[in-house]
Amino acid sequence: QAKAGGRNTRRFFDPKMQAGLAAQSALESDLRAALENKESLVLHYQPQVDRRGGLIGAEGLLRWRHPVKGIVQPDEFIPLAEASGLILALGTRVIAMACDQLAAWSRDPVTSHLALAINVSARQFRHPGFIGEVEGALARSKIDPRLLKLELTESLLLQEMDDAVQKMRALENLGVSLSLDDFGTGYSSLAYLKRLPLSQIKIDRSFVRDILVDANDATIAKTIIVLGKSLGLSVIAEGVEEPGQWRFLHDEGCDQAQGFLFGRPMPAEEFLVHVRQRSRMSSLSDGLSLVH
Ligand code: C2E
Ligand code: MG
Ligand code: MG
Ligand code: MG
Predict the structure, then answer these.
(1) Cα distance between residue 53 and residue 58, in whole Å
(2) Counting atoms of ligand 1 from 1, which one is nearest the CA of 240?
(3) Residue 55 β-bridge partners
(4) CB within 8 A of 16, min separation 6: which ones?
(5) Is the CB of 62 under 6 A from ligand 1?
(6) Beta-carbon neighbour count of residue 4 at 10 Å?
(7) pTM across the whole model
């Protein structure tokens, strides 16, 4: 391990770090190549449900199908893409894929009501062409803009806040909805939250995980729900894995949920099977409730 406070040059002589850097740059050129290939980058879809457990949409999560490594998770390549600037091309791809998927869903009555949330990285959001890009993708795909949800993070909004607010207003005018991702992990202040044209805040998974055993996490989650309500926002919880966690959040008034309890992120075809299954089940239970 490199000594803290050592001279900068030291790291270049550390063989372990050198190997790490080489691996990073190999991964970076693989990612550059992946951007040229239509099949390499795909979205997986994780269900989002309302208070009754009804499916309302999905979050699209990026997956990289690497020729050698197999599926690479975003935590492994998003930071790299951000550092190298590839995130701009990647972000463009994600917007296009999301709009294409929404267009496909809109053609089938079983899926036409579903919304799709995608993640926007800070660098992508700050890029001057971002609004135009979203506008272009909406126009090309002819989808209902209200079904496209952009997930922004607090850190993204804190830098150059006036500019960020202006951009959010422009997005709002396009009709897309805005959700504040990983809420509670950043430096949120109540003063700024009320200035933002958001439609939703998303309780971070780190507060949900121990919600039944950690009193602090439970308090934070409750507070976020109350805060969201008082600002007229919908509140969604992420990382819900157990029925007890959802029962707690539900009792506190949480509007929506996402997590392994309701479904893992899955490829488009599998998600469609999931949707059809659920829609059959809900018509079955509607039928049963008529009997009772
Ligand atoms: P995120 O937006 O907070 O996404 C939620 C992450 O939590 C996803 O990980 C999801 O698979 C995971 N998750 C969902 N439910 C559960 C659960 O019940 N238990 C557990 N243990 N985990 C759960 P994933 O797909 O690895 O994504 C990680 C992060 O990568 C995302 O966090 C997001 O910040 C980023 N990311 C993913 N796709 C994109 C993208 O297209 N663009 C950008 N800029 N970032 C993306
Ligand atoms: Mg997200
Ligand atoms: Mg999140
Ligand atoms: Mg998260």
Answers:
(1) 13
(2) 18
(3) 49
(4) none
(5) yes
(6) 5
(7) 0.92
Task: Give the amino acid at 57.
Answer: G
Identify the three-state secondary structure at position 84.
helix
CA-based nearest residue to 101, from 273, 268, 279: 268
Q: Among the listed ranges 11-25, 51-65, 245-259, 264-278, which one has the minimum average pLDDT value? A: 11-25
The reply to whether ipTM tops 0.95 is yes
Q: Among 133, 134, 205, name the best residue to mutate to test ligand 1's pocket (greatest count of ligand atoms within 8 A of Cβ).
A: 205
Judge whether 37 and 257 are in contact, CB under 8 Å: no
* Cβ–ligand 1 contact at 48 (below 6 Å): no
Shortest CA distance to 48 belongs to which of 237, 267, 231, 266?
A: 237
How many other C-beta atoms are found inside a 10 Å radius of the C-beta of residue 259?
22
Task: Return the ∠ at Cα 209 (arms to 203 and 210), rounded to 5°.
Answer: 115
